[in-house]
Write a structure and sequence with these properties.
CATH topology of the largest domain: Rossmann fold
Number of strands: 7
Oligomer: single chain
CATH class of the largest domain: Alpha Beta
Number of helices: 10
Radius of gyration: 19 Å
Strand content: 5-15%
Largest sheet: 5 strands, mixed
Length: 208
């Protein structure tokens, strides 16, 4: 969907928007007589509540509850495996490089589920120096709206990061944007990928 006009041609009965919003797009939508539902989840519990709410709105609450149960089961299984690790891996997940923004708050929860520790506050602007001081052992790039095309090369070129464990050990990895930034069921697949990256024997730890 490339424009508001194209969306309006579909004559939707409900438009659902979730973070991150484009203010200009929302403003254009609100100029028209349509139903717009805005969601702004921060935690995995918020995401569950939104799924449940959408289930009620579209008359599919039982299906929504099944989605939620399935997500919980998957996360629990990953957490159980991660619990065997002797210590937590220090992780920095990035949602955007310029300005540098750490991944959303729910990603911090997923990092914990996978046996890691997010070393910087989630969903905030951060500086190169803050990342350097946090000493991440792995850097995960999930840049918004780029799919899996985030650039690891420029990460290795940041002067302030040359002595980071993640840079030294070449543990800069990409997880597709929609698997970490979509507040919904795709997070399960994102968590599975992240768990493999945090596993020191997994082949995915190598720089792409």
């Amino acid at each position: 969907m490339n424009s508001v006009d194209e969306l309006l041609e579909l004559k939707p009965t409900l438009v659902i928007g979730s973070v991150p919003y484009k203010q200009e797009t929302i403003a254009k939508l609100l100029e028209h007589p349509l139903n717009f539902l805005a969601m702004n989840p921060r935690t995995l519990r918020d995401i569950e509540s939104d799924i449940r709410m959408l289930g009620r709105v579209v008359g599919r609450l039982p299906q929504a509850e099944r989605f939620i149960r399935k997500m919980r089961q998957e996360f629990s299984a990953i957490s159980k495996k991660a619990g065997k690790k002797k210590r937590k891996t220090r992780v920095y997940c990035e949602a955007w490089p310029n300005p540098r923004i750490s991944s959303p708050c729910w990603v911090s929860e997923i990092v914990k589920i996978c046996g890691g520790e997010m070393v910087l506050p989630s969903g905030q602007k951060v500086t190169d120096e803050q990342v350097s001081e946090a000493l991440p052992e792995i850097i995960v790039l999930a840049w918004t709206a780029t799919g899996d095309k985030a650039g690891t090369r420029q990460t290795f070129q940041v002067t302030a990061w040359k002595d980071l464990p993640a840079i030294r050990d070449k543990r800069v990895c990409v997880i597709s944007d929609e698997l970490l930034n979509t507040p919904g069921p795709p997070l399960v697949q994102g968590a599975k990928q992240l768990f493999r990256l945090l596993d020191p024997v997994a082949p995915e730890r190598r720089d792409k």
